[in-house]
Amino acid sequence: MLGKKLVTAQKRGETRALCLGLGMVACSMMMYFFIGITIVPFYTNSVWTTETVCKVLKANIKDKAFCPNSEGSEDEEIFPYPCLQVWVNLTASGQKVMLYQTEDTVERNPKCSYVPDKLENSKEVKARIETIASNFKKYQTFPCYYDPGGRQTNVILSRLYPSKGLLFAFLWPTLMFTGGCLIIVLVKISQYVSVLSAWQ
Prior knowledge:
Helix content: 40-55%
Distance between the termini: 20 Å
Shape: elongated
Number of strands: 5
Order of helices and strands: HEEEHHEEH
Strand content: 15-25%
Number of domains: 2
Strand order of the largest sheet: 1-2-3-5-4
């Protein structure tokens, strides 16, 4: 009687462990799919792939621009902010080009090098932009990214999803997938050993 209870408890434990392993594998596959349709397209579509050195030529704060909202929005000019324009000398080609914060900045407002968050306070935005401008004037040389194909003549300060960031995004689902597969393999080995022991 005690032996049957132990066998039943063992089968229940194996079933739960097997479900856990399968659940981890399923979750990791969903994470792979999510990363594949969100982060990977941004990484592959970015043309600013080559790192070089940029030297600041001038950093000016011009008239106020308006924070761009989504297309078709009626309150397009609801959030004015100072327009920072940073011009740099591209070491790779020696050209005078405009610097943007990220790829997203070019799409949101190609006239300004920095686009703040619409939810930020206007005074904080003004202070932040002035600080960014003073930092560019203080640190004249820094790494930046440009388009080696020449489709984009401007440069960006940092990529939204660099190679290290993409690898880090794939790290957690990979660990989860490996752990789930390991649990499934261990359960199968345990079942095989149990059947072998009962046969002997």
